[in-house]
Amino acid sequence: MTGSSRKGRVFLEESSDDGRKFGKLKKDEFDGYNSDNHPRKNSPVTLDASHLDPQMAADNAPYDPSLSPLSKSPWSSHINEDAFVSNENEALVGSLVREEGHIYSLAATKDLLYTGSDSKNIRVWKNQKEFAGFKSNSGLVKAIVIAGEKILTGHQDGRIRVWKVSGKNEQQHKRVATLPTLRNYIKCSMKPSNYVEVRRHRNVLWIKHYDAISCLSITEDHSLIYSASWDKTFKVWRTANFKCLESVTAHDDAVNALVVGPEGLVFTGSADGTVKIWRREAQGKTTKHFFSQTLLKQECAVTALAINVEGNLLYAGSSDGLVNFWVRGAKFEHKGVLRGHKLAVLCLATAGGLVFSGSADMSICVWRRTLSDEHTCVNVLSGHTGPVKCLAAERDPDAMCNERKWILYSGSLDKSVKVWKVSENAAAPTNVQLPRLSADQFPRSSSLRKMGSRRY
Fold this sequence. Notes:
Elements: H1 54-59, E1 76-79, E2 85-87, E3 90-97, E4 103-109, E5 112-117, E6 121-126, E7 129-135, E8 141-147, E9 150-155, E10 160-165, E11 173-179, H2 182-189, E12 195-199, E13 202-205, E14 213-218, E15 224-229, E16 233-238, E17 244-249, E18 255-260, E19 265-270, E20 274-283, E21 286-297, E22 302-307, E23 313-318, E24 322-328, E25 332-339, E26 345-351, E27 354-359, E28 364-369, E29 375-381, E30 388-395, E31 405-412, E32 416-423, H3 446-449
Antiparallel strand pairs: 1-3, 2-3, 3-32, 4-5, 5-6, 6-7, 8-9, 9-10, 10-11, 12-13, 14-15, 15-16, 16-17, 18-19, 19-20, 20-21, 22-23, 23-24, 24-25, 26-27, 27-28, 28-29, 30-31, 31-32
């Protein structure tokens, strides 16, 4: 199945700059780090300020290894549990199953796999066996990114937590920061001009996300962290000291996806149906992002983004089940649409010449790109019994030098993670059956009903 040209979509090119600068706002009541349960009127702000937010103080307290959920883990690993083989080159090689919570995030590095769920736990897997575990104090784990020796997690409570493996025990993870940091929060809170109005009668500091973090991304040199949120903004953080450098109001609705490209380009996708390009410019010790171009404008929500390693192909999944893609020449040019799903595309990943799309229809489509940038669906991976929410791919360590094989991890709202082996050189079968399921065939749970939302 090959990608076809777009139909009924308007693509805009704009050159206007849109870097939001937060102006001065009057603030009559300091809200204690946006804690609705702890309002304080005319409270003095001191450096000894754990009273600002008890949860924030807890996040910055020394890590207690006894809080690790590893010893109580009911996770189990099943090798070839379903004995599912879609063809001789694509196989389900294992499942990690747990009655703990829906899987919302994955990150793979070397021989380790990090998984995040709505249980607030982050699990670490090695060779499909549980290796370690640690727990955040609050907030569903919606995003995980590996930045060198640091592990970054984005949460439902709008905060980013930074973890590092203990030098004494590689199975222990120490929390080294919660963003925004308490120090930066206190310093910023002293100026009324640092508050912005997010809704009527509610002001918050510009350095804090006031809604769920939807995704995280980092620059290639790991110097900058990007966080996107349902609060319609993305924020830029310096990795060296975790300082928030900039906040950009990027869309008219929730920002569902963000990826960092080459040469200072940043791509955002939103529930407002648009995909935008932003251009980063260094300004002294800070950064400034300028709006560059709108690649896509449509009725349905943009739910996922992915860019290849070379940075010249961008993919955008939507709630209508389609994947649009662009190829970079003098500019990014729309090249077609991948039609493989009947329900929302919830996640995307690239690996070599392959693209993976995971969907609410419980399947994963494997697309292979040709030298002429055409895409063929070479396989549909089935096995999940719930929407596929996240994907991560890495090179297969067992592959020969001339083989292009990948390990694909898929996390689902069926509370499982599945491990697949995919060969890039596999011959495309002639009988690939694309999903033909309807929403009525899915189990009716509250999490599945949320898939009807424009926020993902």
